[in-house]
Design brief:
Elements: E1 3-7, E2 14-15, H1 17-32, H2 39-47, H3 53-58, H4 65-78, E3 84-85, H5 89-98, E4 102-106, H6 111-120, E5 129-131, H7 144-152, E6 161-166, H8 169-178, E7 181-185, E8 198-199, H9 204-209
Parallel strand pairs: 1-4, 1-6, 4-5, 6-7, 7-8
Antiparallel strand pairs: 2-3
């Protein structure tokens, strides 16, 4: 029997809000001459189930190409300035690995940023796959990412077990849409989860999976 744990990244494995905020505000200032937004506003906006980030961040109905290009250019360098693993995450990941658990990352961030940040934090080699929104047709809550990861492992629902761990309703919904179990991580960007399984410390994952 395989045990597979799929992690969200931002707000679950790592705290990336400072650099994300800096890059969003860089685009606001340079492309739109707008004042800076707070970290809380940006995190709350990202975690909304239904939202138009282009409008919330830049005041445009659609995500303009120039904003996307400038953000990606700036964030490519900025994203490794201040991110950190949440307390207990590294130990939890190593323990899962030592116990033969298969691990991957499914993030709505671009794959390049995810790989860059996880490598910077020296945990990238613990994961078999790191999949961002650019690798699939539709991002979470669509199940495309999870399906791609499960296919990689040749997952069999009758014999294997798989979990999605995330701090967002989109993570939980993507797990349900994929037919796997879900764990809501309440230590990151979202302190309150309405899902059945809510944990407040990464080590609680060990009790569930192992």
């Amino acid at each position: 029997m395989q045990k597979i744990v799929i992690f969200d990244m931002d707000g679950t494995l790592i705290d990336s809000k400072k650099d994300m905020t800096i890059s969003v505000n860089y685009v606001r200032e340079h492309n739109h001459n707008l004042p800076p937004l707070s970290e809380k506003f940006i995190v709350d906006a990202i975690n909304m189930h239904e939202r138009n980030l282009a409008k919330l961040f830049y005041g445009t109905e659609l995500y303009e190409r120039r904003d996307k290009k400038l953000f990606e250019k700036h964030y490519k360098e900025q994203c490794i300035e201040h991110p950190y693993l949440y307390d207990g995450v590294a130990d939890m990941l190593v323990t899962l690995k030592e116990n033969g658990v298969k691990m991957s990352v499914a993030t709505n961030a671009p794959t390049l940023f995810a790989q860059t940040m996880l490598e910077h934090l020296s945990v990238d080699k613990l994961f078999d796959l790191i999949i961002g929104a650019d690798k699939v047709k539709a991002s979470k809550p669509n199940p495309d990412m999870i399906h791609a990861i499960l296919e990689y492992y040749q997952y069999e629902s009758e014999t294997d077990r798989a979990w999605m761990v995330g701090d967002n309703s989109k993570d939980i919904e993507s797990a349900k849409n994929s037919g796997i179990e879900a764990i809501f991580a309440a230590w990151g960007f979202s302190a309150n989860g309405t899902h059945t399984v809510v944990i407040k410390d990464p080590k609680e994952i060990l009790d569930i999976v192992l």
